[in-house]
Amino acid sequence: MPRWNDLSASEITLLDHVFWSSSISREALATGSSFSKSRANAAVAGMLEQGVLEPTGEQVATGGRRAGTLRLSRGLGVLLGVALGATGLEVGVLAPDLELLAHHSEPADVRDGPAIVLSRVRALMRELLKQCGAKPRDVIAIGIGVPGPVDFESGQLVNPPLMPEWDAYSIRDDLRADFSAPVFVDNDVNVMALGELWRMQRGLQNFLVIKVGTGIGCGIVCHGQVYRGANGSAGDVGHICVDPAGPRCHCGNLGCVEVMAAGPAIAREATAAALAGQSALLKQMLTERGVLKLQDVAQASRAGDVAANAIVQRAGALIGQMLASVVNFYNPSHVFIGGGIQRIGPLFLAAVRQSVYHRSLALSTRHLEIQYTPLGERAGLIGAAVLAMQESLKLVEGAK
Amino acid sequence: MPRWNDLSASEITLLDHVFWSSSISREALATGSSFSKSRANAAVAGMLEQGVLEPTGEQVATGGRRAGTLRLSRGLGVLLGVALGATGLEVGVLAPDLELLAHHSEPADVRDGPAIVLSRVRALMRELLKQCGAKPRDVIAIGIGVPGPVDFESGQLVNPPLMPEWDAYSIRDDLRADFSAPVFVDNDVNVMALGELWRMQRGLQNFLVIKVGTGIGCGIVCHGQVYRGANGSAGDVGHICVDPAGPRCHCGNLGCVEVMAAGPAIAREATAAALAGQSALLKQMLTERGVLKLQDVAQASRAGDVAANAIVQRAGALIGQMLASVVNFYNPSHVFIGGGIQRIGPLFLAAVRQSVYHRSLALSTRHLEIQYTPLGERAGLIGAAVLAMQESLKLVEGAK
To answer: Which residues of chain A have pLDDT under 50?
Structure first.
């Protein structure tokens, strides 16, 4: 199996360039790198020979010479990505060019604590690797996104409000019980932001990803890099106040956007509407399913239910109000919204946009685009694999 | 006169290092640069000979060898810095190591338009240069901070609310009428942030500077660089809503922090308190001076006037409320507050702190420091000179 530990610093730079381009033509690689064309070509030839790079299927003949696109070789091994949410988990095996080879998602409750949740994650990892015909030693690195604030250096959660049992637990040591590969941990929405950064091949430099699910969080990309803040808690927008007279949040303050507009608030209002007889559809769902969840409200809204639509619009307006402050401060080029809320569809997005454009300054919103995360439900898994690959490459670079 | 255009790329890198260190020992320069010690020493010797660097006064003998600190040579020329506010302007001549050689400040009204204001700026520049015995051709570069959103590439203001006549006016062309040096324009609080970044020798990577004067703005330092946003309007925090039922702002929205807590709001409330007979001191000031300004309220507050203190505390609480949102989002290590508000003293700062610590998450504020800008009233002028020097060095680097 080819190992990149033997590569030179300039070869690693080229490797990084190929990774962030997903696949790239030899021409573009040679001209896009900071090396001379002949030096880049020689390095590429060497890396092809060592099996670190490989040609993709597409070969186009141009003017007699065989041009070809390159990608990271499948022979390098696989990446493991984990997207842990408050109420579900997803594990995936990905090729070095981030093709998803196998994945599985299922409900999970992070409040069961790290021992239970992570042993299930490890079992799924082994199972999925087997499905792909890969072995634990083939794993290049593991990336995991978690729904709480992370100290990035130690890879540990710090006072996570949704998962107190995980405070200062070493996810790294836990996963290393089965795998010798390096483990990288980050906040779930930072990981989604990293995934979108990769998808756009770093084409956007300053954008935000907002995740709305059980909580509300924000991933920040600044000057083309994920920005984590002085203590790793940057993007903690769920506790921005949108109504000083609003209900009390678990953080102790009144009127946080999270307590008023995240998944549980939407489900709670839908339950109240069902019980108050404001919606036959929500009432029927409640009777059939026992409880209403965000996805039920999304389904009712898409079906045109008036009460569900009012709840969705109110949540969108409140989240837009929070976003207006953030947009005035940060002036991003794009805001991508992801998480469970994405299932609602265009109505929620329209309410958010209206609220932001109403409250933000003209200059901040002149070219602002607000849309759902293009990677959709895969943003977390892809992002976790990008984290794994990016940080592994940094480790190798650092050792040069 | 020595010219750095002739320097090599690695010499420029060393020059940049010396500039950001203010002054630096030869030892520290050789070890702090990415070059080998012998290569760095040779380059330094050459730059001393060319008169680009010079030893500072302090020479310390250590172990028989003469150690010495270095700075950018006075022979390189001078920098011109301009800090333009809504109601005043300041012009300074600075040495390449940012020692202030001459400066002058006076009231000015930006609403008089660029032609009038900038002709006064040019007159002051000529006068101050003469005072220093310098000539227009000695000017290395000019930096200017202006109280509105700037398109950094073109150096032009874009829809500035406080100075509409300046929209798309070319400050560069205007100042170039008298000086052939390059002119760099940025928003006033970005310039202050750059000044503080230089003062700390880039020791802090992620911090904010809030300016409270006629308006309220924020300079953002991210990953050790000033962050200007997708359209140059990042940090426009004055229009973050702190009270949905508050008064209407000139931007059209209700309850913006600027309309409720900036200098004019504080002066307006003080006038009302004086007229309502709530403060003998404010009434006396109003009678004597005809109008009350922020500095009058500051003076009354420092004298212990109860009505002035209540006004100051309310403004601090509102600005703190806005800052709490910003701190939750950005998780800076430090927030520095500058502008006219700085004259009020500790009472205002205490109100801001209380409000931020009350509303922000524990993790965001665990190590957060909130203080007045250490450069104080010089932040704008120093920052403008840093802008001039930094961008000039980039021009030279770009030409290599």
So the answer is: 61, 63-66
Q: How is residue A194 written in tokens? A: 């990293």
Q: What is the predicted pLDDT for the residue at A57?
A: 67
CATH topology of domain B200-376: Nucleotidyltransferase; domain 5 (3.30.420)
Residue contact B331–A206, C-beta within 8 A: no
The HSE-up count of residue A200 (CA atoms within 13 Å, CB side) is: 19
Token pair 């760095």 is at which residue?
Answer: B40
Distance CA A273, CA A266 (A): 11
- B324 vs A contacts (CB less than 8 Å): 240-241
Structure tokens at B74: 């006075």
Q: What is the pLDDT of residue B65?
A: 44
Tokens standing for residue A267: 């489900």
In angstroms, the CA A34 to CA B198 distance is 30
What CATH number is given for B76-197+379-399 in this structure?
3.30.420.40
Give residue limits of the domains in chain A. 4-75, 76-197+379-399, 201-375
Question: Across chain B, what does the average pLDDT equal?
Answer: 91
Q: Are residues A231 and B367, on separate chains, in Cβ contact within 8 Å?
A: yes
Closest CA in chain A for residue B158: A363
What CATH number belongs to A201-375? Answer: 3.30.420.40
Asked whether the predicted pLDDT for residue B397 surpasses 90, the reply is no
Q: What is the pLDDT of residues B337-393, one digit of tens each?
A: 999 999 998 999 999 999 999 888 777 888 899 999 999 999 999 999 999 999 999
Q: With respect to CATH, is domain B4-75 assigned 1.10.10.10? A: yes
Q: How many CB atoms lie within 10 A of CB A133?
A: 10
Whole-angstrom Cα Rg for chain A = 23
Q: Of A159, A240, A243, which is closest to B328 when you measure between CB atoms?
A: A240
| CA separation for the pair B323, B332 (Å, rounded) | 11
Collapsing DSSP to helix, strand or coil, A58 comes out as strand
Q: Tell me: the pLDDT tens digits for B142-174?
A: 999 999 989 899 999 988 888 999 999 999 999
Mutation site for B-interface testing, chosen from A190, A223, A228, A233 by largest number of B Cβ within 10 Å: A233
Is A364 close to B231, i.e. CB distance below 8 A?
Answer: yes
Read off the DSSP letter of residue A339.
Answer: S
- Report the distance separating Cα A107 and Cα B169, nearest Å: 59
Distance of residue B176 Cα from the nearest chain A Cα, in angstroms? 28
- Contact residues on chain A for B187, CB-CB shorter than 8 A: none
Contacts of A366 in chain B (CB under 8 A): 231
- Spatial distance between the Cα atoms of B229 and A144, rounded to a whole number of angstroms: 29
